[in-house]
Design a protein that fits this description.
Low-confidence stretches: none
Number of strands: 0
Mean pLDDT: 87
Order of helices and strands: HHH
Structural class: mainly alpha
Shape: globular
Protein backbone atom coordinates (compact mmCIF):
# COMPACT_ATOMS: atom_id res chain seq x y z
CA UNK A 1 0.00 0.00 0.00
CA UNK A 2 2.17 2.87 1.24
CA UNK A 3 5.89 2.81 0.65
CA UNK A 4 7.98 3.05 3.76
CA UNK A 5 10.90 5.45 3.85
CA UNK A 6 14.10 3.38 3.51
CA UNK A 7 16.20 2.97 6.66
CA UNK A 8 19.21 4.63 5.01
CA UNK A 9 17.21 7.84 4.52
CA UNK A 10 18.51 8.98 7.90
CA UNK A 11 21.89 9.45 6.24
CA UNK A 12 20.45 11.75 3.57
CA UNK A 13 20.41 15.53 3.81
CA UNK A 14 17.34 17.03 5.43
CA UNK A 15 15.74 18.24 2.19
CA UNK A 16 15.94 14.76 0.67
CA UNK A 17 14.38 13.22 3.79
CA UNK A 18 11.53 15.71 3.63
CA UNK A 19 10.97 15.05 -0.07
CA UNK A 20 10.95 11.26 0.41
CA UNK A 21 8.35 11.49 3.17
CA UNK A 22 6.20 13.95 1.20
CA UNK A 23 6.41 11.75 -1.91
CA UNK A 24 5.26 8.77 0.15
CA UNK A 25 2.26 10.70 1.52
CA UNK A 26 1.41 12.00 -1.96
CA UNK A 27 1.42 8.46 -3.38
CA UNK A 28 -0.76 7.23 -0.51
CA UNK A 29 -3.34 10.00 -1.01
CA UNK A 30 -3.50 9.50 -4.77
CA UNK A 31 -3.78 5.71 -4.39
CA UNK A 32 -6.57 6.00 -1.82
CA UNK A 33 -8.40 8.57 -3.95
CA UNK A 34 -8.17 6.22 -6.92
CA UNK A 35 -9.38 3.30 -4.79
CA UNK A 36 -12.21 5.02 -2.89
CA UNK A 37 -13.03 7.93 -5.16
CA UNK A 38 -13.14 11.39 -3.70
CA UNK A 39 -15.16 10.17 -0.70
CA UNK A 40 -13.24 12.20 1.88
CA UNK A 41 -13.99 15.52 0.21
CA UNK A 42 -17.28 14.48 -1.45
CA UNK A 43 -18.96 11.98 0.91
CA UNK A 44 -21.77 9.87 -0.50
CA UNK A 45 -24.09 10.72 2.40
CA UNK A 46 -26.20 7.54 2.36
CA UNK A 47 -26.04 6.83 6.10
CA UNK A 48 -24.29 9.93 7.44
CA UNK A 49 -25.24 13.50 6.70
CA UNK A 50 -21.98 14.92 8.05
CA UNK A 51 -20.19 17.48 5.93
CA UNK A 52 -16.86 16.58 4.37
CA UNK A 53 -15.08 18.74 6.96
CA UNK A 54 -16.87 17.06 9.89
CA UNK A 55 -16.06 13.64 8.45
CA UNK A 56 -12.39 14.55 8.16
CA UNK A 57 -12.33 15.89 11.72
CA UNK A 58 -13.81 12.62 13.01
CA UNK A 59 -11.19 10.60 11.12
CA UNK A 60 -8.44 12.84 12.53
CA UNK A 61 -9.82 12.33 16.05
CA UNK A 62 -9.87 8.56 15.47
CA UNK A 63 -6.22 8.56 14.36
CA UNK A 64 -5.19 10.70 17.34
CA UNK A 65 -7.00 8.28 19.66
CA UNK A 66 -5.15 5.34 18.10
CA UNK A 67 -1.85 7.14 18.66
CA UNK A 68 -2.82 7.90 22.26
CA UNK A 69 -3.75 4.24 22.79
CA UNK A 70 -0.36 3.03 21.58
CA UNK A 71 -0.87 2.25 17.88
CA UNK A 72 2.56 3.64 17.09
CA UNK A 73 3.97 0.46 18.62
CA UNK A 74 2.09 -1.78 16.15
CA UNK A 75 3.08 -2.62 12.57
CA UNK A 76 -0.49 -3.26 11.35
CA UNK A 77 -1.21 0.28 10.18
CA UNK A 78 0.76 3.43 9.51
CA UNK A 79 -1.32 5.73 11.71
CA UNK A 80 1.04 8.70 11.35
CA UNK A 81 0.87 8.66 7.54
CA UNK A 82 -2.92 8.36 7.70
CA UNK A 83 -3.09 11.29 10.12
CA UNK A 84 -0.87 13.42 7.89
CA UNK A 85 -3.03 12.44 4.92
CA UNK A 86 -6.25 13.49 6.65
CA UNK A 87 -4.67 16.78 7.71
CA UNK A 88 -3.68 17.44 4.10
CA UNK A 89 -7.24 16.64 2.96
CA UNK A 90 -8.53 19.07 5.60
CA UNK A 91 -6.16 21.72 4.22
CA UNK A 92 -7.38 21.01 0.67
CA UNK A 93 -11.00 21.23 1.81
CA UNK A 94 -10.55 24.63 3.47
Amino acid sequence: MVERVPDNVMEAPFSIKVQLVLDSIEKMLIEKNRKYGNSALEPLGVFSQLSAKEGLLIRIDDKLKRIKNGSLEKDDEDVVNDLIGYLILLKIHA
